[in-house]
Design brief:
The chain is an alpha+beta fold. It contains 13 helices and eleven strands. Helix 1 (about 5-15) crosses helix 3 and helix 4 (about 75-85) packs across helix 8 (about 195-200). InterPro entries: DR2241_Fer4, DR2241_middle, DUF7348.
Length: about 350
């Protein structure tokens, strides 16, 4: 990037240059070069060129953001500057950190920005759980669209219906991306995450709350509107707790019940926002609308205290996706497979009815 000083001097001949603490201005007395720690005035063009050689980090930093990244995509520029803490840290401090690598997490992605001796940035992208794994021990990818396949299935090979679900599989790395490909790869893993993050920073994120989203559902999803029966929004709290918790989705929920009514459930700590109930929430809510339309019935079961506790343990383990963590030998765990099979053998009749009590009247 040896031509960066030529480019900077040419830019200063046309207009003032100001970026991240560097200022180069021109007057009848010649050029003035300023950084937070220095001031040079009355410089000829050749003297300016020589002086800039002593502030090469500032010069390459200007060249990267003014020429390489540019301003054609404000959201890409803002994201890349966030990745390396531009505007937050002074150029010398930031460059020192970049030489060692600056790390940021974006959902379950880990981004590491580094810099070479010419000020050129490169980015390593991998799963957060693979932070300490040597790059040679991960499967390398170089094309952003490869992320589409990696985001399709979880560790067990199951389809991931929610791209921002907290079940992204690891074992891969994009080891040497440029800025444009980094943003494209991130956007392939988490569609619209960068634009929505940028709009939120700019104060222009258009949030659609539950009532707005449900009100515009048509066809088979219009039934969800019947779930609002004027008896509060507790059911939407249940939906948010089930689907939008940090353990289920890496977005930070910003939508509420409506403009005036916040949900009682925390929106989470995700870096980027969720601006409206997603398709998974809508699909699940359609099912819950029908289930919650049923009248309650009274059933009588006889359970020991331990059996009641075991039923509760099983529900907790399934809801938190902990079933695979419970070893076969952990018979003290209520959701242990052998204990569950024992409960079924003891309490289910030949038709699969708990304690022999039919679900529907016979």
């Amino acid at each position: 990037m040896g031509h960066h000083i030529d480019a900077l001097v040419a830019a200063a001949a046309d207009d003032d240059v100001r970026l991240d603490g560097l200022e180069v201005t021109q007057s009848d007395d010649g050029y003035t070069l300023e950084t937070p720690d220095s001031h040079h005035a009355g410089l000829s063009e050749d003297a300016l060129r020589d002086a800039l050689g002593d502030y090469d980090d500032y010069a390459t930093n200007w060249y990267v953001w003014s020429t390489v990244v540019g301003e054609s995509s404000p959201q890409r520029r803002a994201f890349l500057r966030w990745v390396e803490g531009a505007g937050k840290y002074a150029v010398p401090e930031r460059y020192d950190a970049l030489r060692d690598g600056i790390h940021h997490e974006w959902g379950q992605l880990r981004i590491t920005a580094t810099i070479d001796g010419h000020g050129e940035r490169s980015y390593d992208l991998r799963h957060v759980d693979d932070a300490d794994i040597d790059v040679d021990d991960l499967d390398p990818y170089h094309e952003p669209l490869a992320a589409r396949q990696l985001a399709t299935y979880d560790e067990k090979g199951r389809y991931r219906p929610l791209k921002t679900g907290a079940n992204l599989a690891g074992g891969w790395v994009f080891p040497d991306l440029d800025g444009r490909d980094l943003v494209e790869t991130v956007e392939t893993f988490y569609p619209a995450s960068v634009p929505n993050w940028f709009r939120e920073r700019e104060g222009t994120l258009d949030v659609e709350h539950w009532e707005d989203t449900i009100g515009r559902q048509t066809g088979m999803y219009s039934v969800i509107d019947t779930w609002n029966r004027g008896d509060g929004h507790e059911h939407v709290n249940w939906v948010a707790e089930a689907c939008c918790d940090d353990s289920q989705c890496v977005k930070r929920r910003e939508w509420e019940y409506d403009d005036e009514t916040d949900l009682d459930v925390d929106g989470g700590d995700g870096v980027f926002p969720c601006r409206e109930p997603c398709s998974l929430v809508i699909a699940a809510s359609r099912k819950w609308t029908r289930l919650e339309g049923e009248e309650t019935k009274t059933y009588e079961f006889e359970l020991t205290p331990s059996e009641k506790q075991q039923v509760e343990d099983i529900i907790e383990a399934v809801a938190d996706d902990r079933i695979d963590e419970i070893r076969e030998a952990d018979v003290y765990e209520g959701s242990n497979r052998y204990r569950t099979r024992f409960l079924r053998a003891k309490l289910f009749d030949e038709d699969g009815n708990l304690c022999g009590v039919p679900t529907e009247d016979e």
